[in-house]
Amino acid sequence: MATRSKIPSLSTIFSLYTSLSAFTILFKTILHEILPLKIRTFIVSRFTNYFSSYFNSDFTFIVEEKCDYVTNQTFRAAEVYLPTLLAGITTGSLLVGSSNLKDPIAKPKYGIPINAKIIDEFEGIRLEWTLLSAKNESLYQSKEKRYFHLTCKKEFREKIMSDYFIYIAKLSVKILAQRESLKIHTYNSEFHVWESTIFQHHTTFETLAIEPELKNTLIRDLDAFSNGKDFFKTVGRAWKRGYLLYGPPGTGKSSLVAAIANHMCYSIYDLQLQSVQDDAMLRKILTYTENRSILLIEDVDCGGADASCREENGLWSSCVEERIIIFTTNHKEKLDPALLRPGRMDVHVLMNYCTPYVFRKLAALYLEIEEHNLFETIEKMIVEVKATPAEITEQLMVSKNPDVSLKSLVEFLESKKKMSKESEEGAEIKEA
């Protein structure tokens, strides 16, 4: 017959409890009266961390919005990737909005609200994403600091570190390349933030009215840049490409920027250098821009541009990877020589007055005609008269009737030719 274990008496249990209580009181006394506050805090925190780690089977990755003063690309990848998993959102809220100003009834887009939890699965591993926010104060901005918590079981930590983050980074690149709409960002110098809206300029290289040779050269150059990651790495250069677009107003510089953006599927950051106080602020502004984008600086011949060209750590070295930088100017001769030296602008593009080819392209776009009995007359006048594509377009839009529009264009060119002749004669009399 098995021996029955003895059950401790009530007095024994009470005695043990009294002893433990006395030890606890003594231990607290030692902590509070003998040990300094810093040491007490350290001991308590170590015990807390130990027991928390021992009993908690989860591990949490913290993905902050900024990393080394620039946009954290892992955060950016998560921001792009997670909206594709909105079916897995576990909280009872969802961001809804549309920035399509041209189509008020366009289908809204959905986003992740703060404190929302999204469930993902990777190779059988259950993952939980949470978007969080905290107040962030800095020299050039005051806004909410966003960050993600990614939680998984401890046993899968190494797998997530080695495979999952790379997986979402590659997937986000594909998503961005296939996005339906681009954005144009404008810098708000008062609040020190980039403000964005949908970029809805529909000009493409197919519809752009420029000479075929120039168009083909630009397309080849852009495609080579897009596929040039390994080349830039091999030669030790940052993955950037700079374009200087120069020529008279109305020659299509803005349209060319739009065509480049649509061809590359890059959003645009439109920066007015006049609002930049110094090089330090410029560098700070640029750290809050994204990869795979266009930095556009228009009218660079105006005040404020020169200072940015003197610092070696300024505009170029502060930009992120896979970036196209476009300067535009109406007066190339007024630019700081530092901007024109080798290494600043890779490609100089002259946007000139209208040519017969450009006129025919515009007529096909706006009037939908390939031939007309006034074409020959107009082409001869265009060779003689300096008219910009914008001026030609304005006349072509007078009427949908080709006869009316082309007649208006002929009258405009005759008037412009007459004014030019009178101006030349006046200059000759003045010189005499």
UniProtKB/TrEMBL annotation:
The chain crosses the membrane at residues 12-31. One of its GO terms (biological process) is response to stress. It catalyses: ATP + H2O = ADP + phosphate + H(+). The keyword Cytoplasm does not apply. SUPFAM superfamilies: P-loop containing nucleoside triphosphate hydrolases. GO terms for molecular function: ATP binding; ATP hydrolysis activity. Belongs to the AAA ATPase family. BCS1 subfamily. This is AAA+ ATPase domain-containing protein. Pfam families: AAA (PF00004), AAA_assoc (PF14363), AAA_lid_At3g28540 (PF25568). Residues 239-355 form the AAA+ ATPase domain. It comes from Arabis nemorensis. Its cofactor is Mg(2+). Keywords: ATP-binding, Hydrolase, Magnesium, Membrane, Nucleotide-binding, Transmembrane, Transmembrane helix. InterPro entries: AAA+_ATPase, AAA_N_dom, At3g28540-like_C, ATPase_AAA_core, ATPase_AAA_CS, Mitochondrial_chaperone_BCS1, P-loop_NTPase.
